[in-house]
Amino acid sequence: MKVFLNNRLVAADKARVSAFDHGFLYGDGIYETVRAYEYRVFHWPDHFRRLQNSARRLALKCPWSSRYLLKAIDRVLRANGEPNASVRITVARGPGPLGLDPSVCPKPTLVILLHPARPLEKLWKNGISIGIVRVRRNHPRCLDPQIKSNNSLNTILAKMEAKKMKVFEAVLLNLDGYLTEGTTSNIFFVKDGVLHTPAFSCGLLEGVTRNEVIRLARGKGISVREGRYRVADLRRADEVLLTSTTLEVVSVVRVRQGARGWKVGNGRPGPVTQHLHQLFRRNLFSRTRLG
User: Fold this and answer.
1) Which listed residue (61, 107, 125, 148) is catalytic?
2) How far from the centroid of its chain's Cα atoms is residue 67's Cα?
3) Is 148 a catalytic residue?
4) What total of structural domains would you count in the chain?
5) pLDDT tens, 219-275?
6) 109 and 127 part of one domain
7) How far apart (Å, rounded) are the C-alpha atoms in residues 194 and 196?
8) Domain at 235, CATH number
9) 43 and 162 assigned to the same domain
10) What are the b/e assignments for 130-151, b being 16+ CB within 10 Å?
11) Whose CA, among 71, 75, 154, 231, lies 20 to 30 Å from 3?
C-alpha cells in the first residue's frame, strides 16, 4: 500500500510519524473519511467544509487547499490501483515538546490512506445487526460533536462493547437516554412510511451521507422528521437503517440491548431502505468531483 504523508507518497511500511507528534501523544487532531467512485470523490465540497470546520473549532492549522487535498486523494487511489475505495484524511497537530499546549506545534502532520475493503454487496443484501451499548455519547458541552476528532476513545469503548455483543455496529445513547449515532454511522428508522432520525441537539456529528439521504427522501415525497427518540421507538419501527460514507445505506435487521434482542420487521432489508439506497446510487455521480 502507498500512503500520502506530508506532501509525498511513501510505502506503508516506510510511513513514519514523529513520537513527539501531539496527534500520537494526545489524540490532538482531526480526520475525514471520503468515498471515491471511479476516482471521483463523493460530496467532496461538504467533506472539505467539515474538515475545515473541525480544524477551526480546534484552532488547528489546516493550510491545504481543497484542490491540493483532492489531488492528493487521487494520487493515493491511483498509486494503489483502487478507483473505488474509501480514503481517510488525518490531520494531526504535529510534533512539539511534551505538554498539552497546542501552540508549541508549528507544523501539522497530514496523512492520507485507504480504508480496508468491506463486503458491501453482502451487507446491502442481508442487512446488519446493531447493539445499543451502555457507553454513552460524550456530552456536547464536554466535547463538541461537530469536531471529527482523532481522539476516539468514546467510540472505541462502544466498539469494544459491540464486539462482545457480536453485532456489526454500536449505537450510542446520550446522557438523557436518547439515540444519537453509531461509532461511524448515523441511524434512521421508518414508522408508517415516515423516516425518522435523531436531531443534532441530541449530540451527534452532522453526517454528509445522512444529509444526502434526507435530501433524496424529501425530494421523493418521503416525510422526514428529526427529533429525540428512545430505544422504544426502534422497537416499534418498521425498518431501521444506517448511513455512512463507507456503508452508504444499509438495513438493520436485528437490534440487541443487553441480554435482549429483537428482529426488525421480517428480518430482511425493508422496502423504504432499499428505495433510498437505489436513489443514493442513482445520484452518485451528480454529487462527485474528479480528482
Assistant:
1) 148
2) 22
3) yes
4) 2
5) 999 999 999 999 999 999 999 999 999 999 999 999 999 989 999 999 999 999 999
6) no
7) 6
8) 3.20.10.10
9) no
10) bbbbebbbbebeeeebbbbbbb
11) 154
